[in-house]
Amino acid sequence: QKEVEQDPGPLSVPEGAIVSLNCTYSNSAFQYFMWYRQYSRKGPELLMYTYSSGNKEDGRFTAQVDKSSKYISLFIRDSQPSDSATYLCAMTGIQGAQKLVFGQGTRLTINP
Amino acid sequence: DAGVTQSPTHLIKTRGQQVTLRCSPKSGHDTVSWYQQALGQGPQFIFQYYEEEERQRGNFPDRFSGHQFPNYSSELNVNALLLGDSALYLCASSWGGPGELFFGEGSRLTVL
What we know:
heterodimer; A: 112 residues; mainly beta; five-stranded antiparallel beta sheet; 11 strands; B: 112 residues; seven-stranded mixed beta sheet; four-stranded antiparallel beta sheet; globular
């Protein structure tokens, strides 16, 4: 079993829809949770960074962490075609070590 | 402010050859990590360098080695290349604390 599970999709939604992306994990030591966006043939770009459980909002993006369920989510409101990309969840457990464990990534397409 | 820069962007090698990939971290960052991303997969942690020493290592064979220079730049070396080494190699930099990792665009290696 992988430490981090993420549905690879692909996921296709119409412009303006609310998108929900999710990851589950098995290692209870994970404390720092991140979402990266990766466009085709580019490096990952950090979208959201959260510590422990709770919600964090940044513009159209909301990240949620439920450590009791070992489940994290990313919500995208008012989705735009420019949001079409692969979304990677990542997490780490040791402060400062930053050995990130990534999910497989979910390929998202927003249709105009 | 330049972000993380990597070179070369693309390269083709044959089995058994050796390759060196280079990375310059974001200004102000002192820690460099290397990741391997196979097609359709999330990045896998190779190793991390801090103060010119390997601080952590992932599950990669000794054919993968690295170096960090006094100016914080880094190299990744892979010996005796295998077909399975074909991937996008990503460099990420950070300031060493429990903060954010910033990725470069990657070096795409094809082994024939």
